[in-house]
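2 proteins. here.
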Amino acid sequence: MDTEYRMILNVGGVRHETYKHTLKKIPATRLSRLTTNLANYDPVLNEYFFDRHPGVFALVLNYYRTGTLHYPLDVCGPLFEEELKYWGLDPNEVEPCCWMTYTQHRDTQEVLSTLEKLDVDVEKLNNQEELYKTFGWEDDYHNQSLSMWQKVKPKLWRLFDEPGSSTGAKVIAVISVFFLIAAIVVFCLKTHPGLRVYEIDSITVNISQPNLPPHSKDSGNRGRKGGGNNNNNHAADDTNRRKHRIENDDDDDEDDGGGGGGTGDGPRWRRQTTMCKYRTEAIGIDQKSSKPHPSFMIVETVCNFWFTIEIIIRFLTSPSKIKYFKAPVNIIDIVATLTFYVDLLLATSFGATADLEFFSIIRIMRLFKLTQHSQGLKILLHTFKASAKELMLLVFFLVLGIVLFASLVYYAERVEVNPDNQFQSIPLGLWWAVVTMTTIGYGDMTPHTYLGRLIGSICALAGVLTIALPVPVIVSNFAMFYSHTQARSKMPKKKRAVLNLEQVSVKKKN
């Protein structure tokens, strides 16, 4: 019998029996260094006892026997890694057929880590100790030496920064969303022509016209009509008459002999006009303009007053001022609110409103504040961030196709005689290629030759394929993030801690 070459291993109550030389196949591992001096050796039963997972050990022992390591489907990935680490095996030795299934837990852990950074948990900081620990006041909390501000500050912070933390926080969130939507609606409605107030402004325009000598006929007529404002109505007519008479004078010169030998009125009139000087006159013109209805200004003032209070409270109660200013949503909120006060100040001081309305477009960026109140929007934004490689690949192929098909259709339309050719240059073809590849198809530019239409058909098909390929990856990322978020929100909080005690590995001999 070969009993002296066999070893009995009791792992988690399941006895395994193998040969000693089998365990020597993989050196520098726990099983290859088994001796009777170990504390887990039982001399009575002549076996080694290990309080480890018996299912994973069956695969570990099979790895010693066959040289191939497979991953079990009924074991979580981190547990499998922990068991391999205990037995001294490298997780990278997993066979390719099981590698994709085995590494899924790494993707899951990465997603969970990302969600932790995104701060999308519905329930968090459930006890006072965790809340004050966020502000670094756990010692004052245990010593019961918190000041009034230290007691109020965390509560205000949760009230304005965590919409799902309490009923009061939900009410504040509803109010904030209401003012946000009201501000956006006002921003859009105040541009409607039917909701604007029209007014007529009188402006002064300076014009230059010849100052004729006193003995000229026009000068006499203008003097009899009077000066000042009476001339304004006839300024244009006088200018036209003077221009016409100068042109007639040139014709008279030619009739009288050209160079200046004539004695008619033509040459004399020309000599008089060459001595004219120009003078400037001010003419009043009425210009029609419009501005938003005053009621819109009242609504905007109320909304921005709420936004100002919200910004101040969130800044004063923030646990970290640096993190507050690093948040893109906070920066957008501050800049959008400041633009309102700058517009209000400049409009009050200088009266310039029409030129400043363009900068109010920054306030539309407040829509990103909705990400604070919606987990789905947070996840959607991070989905685009996580899918940056796929999106960049999509943009690359789109740009490549746009340039290629724009060049092809430009030369295709020039091959045949085409009087209705709309592709006069490749830049114009770029616009057509963008509209075609994105399947919008405005129809403002269309090829008329057979070759051009063939290229247009291929361009449309290429656009459909190019856009459709990365979409499943983005949808898959969103579904993965969203499903994990829903699972985390329903997961109960751990209440019991497990102590990590090390096992004694060597038995002392007397």
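next one coming up
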Amino acid sequence: MKRVVKVLKELVTLLPRETVGPVVPLLASCHSSFLESNGLMTTGPYFPRRGQKTYPTKTTVRPQRPILQMFLHLSQLEASKGVDPEYDQALLDFFLPYHQFVETLFRAALSQGLMSQDLVNLSES
């Protein structure tokens, strides 16, 4: 995931006009489908778990479909912040690249005059 986000950040940085337009509606659609769903989504094998020391193997069960958004329902957290510093760091390592990517999208759109309501909504989440 980190490599994909890194490539996307590079594309947005190098070609903002060509990438911001298609990527923002895609992300907005993923976010809105999560918000509209009543059930919890599968977090997948790479989501941090308390006490997990290694990454899962390829044979681990994966989500039914790829998930691009990075929302998390509070009931899916295994511990409150501050209870387990290793778990807190694992969550930060998992979510930070995505949120940095959204920040890159926002900055590129702002500098190129490509701001949209969808992008503002992404930056608030």
